[in-house]
Amino acid sequence: MTEKQIRSSFLNASQRERNNLNLPENFEALNWEDLDFVGWRDRKYQTLGYVIAWVDGATRGILFREVEGKTRSRAQCSWCNDVTLPNDVAYFTAKRSGASGRNGNTVATLMCSRFECPANVRRHEPPAYVGFDATAARAERMAGLQAQVRTFMDKMMLGSD
Ligand SMILES: [Zn+2]
Fold first, then answer.
1. What Cα–Cα distance (Å) separates residue 28 from each residue in 1, 7, 12, 41?
2. 83 alpha carbon to ligand 1 midpoint, in Å?
3. 101 CA to centre of ligand 1 in angstroms
4. Would you place residue 69 in the very low, low, confident or very high pLDDT band (cuts 50, 70, 90)?
5. How far is the CA of 40 from the centre of ligand 1 (A)?
6. Distance between Cα 150 and ligand 1 center (Å)
7. Residue 114's pLDDT is what?
8. pLDDT the model gives residue 12
9. What's the longest Cα–Cα distance across the chain?
10. What pTM did the predictor assign?
11. Where are the alpha helices (DSSP H) in the chain?
12. How far is the CA of 3 from the centre of ligand 1 (A)?
């Protein structure tokens, strides 16, 4: 994955936002193949975050903005929702694609504040009961996360030009 590919993969970022974004600090060392997506917060623009995923063989990126949301006492991440989370959850909005997004329409979600979802679904949980298939459960969580990313992108694209 090159820097150029990343910058050009965003579904909902303006040319200026693409040019201004800062890549993750460990960019060179990232192991892209082993993850459902790569997500990071911009080290310069604190409220911005990015997610890059593979959908139908293509690289697709989402630009997120953290907003002050109505924080519930026990917020859950919508992307890895049934996991006991070790991290904070934040309220994010993503601009919709195309004209709709330029007109200010967004899709909102509660999510792991630093996009820890790929690591969370891969955690090895203690067996829930005798004979519990931990490997299958883990694979299911990974598939579930990938489906969430896809569903979110579909929502963003809805009604776009
Ligand atoms: Zn999560």
1. 9, 15, 24, 16
2. 8
3. 24
4. low
5. 12
6. 14
7. 94
8. 95
9. 54
10. 0.89
11. 3-8, 15-20, 98-102, 117-122, 134-157
12. 25
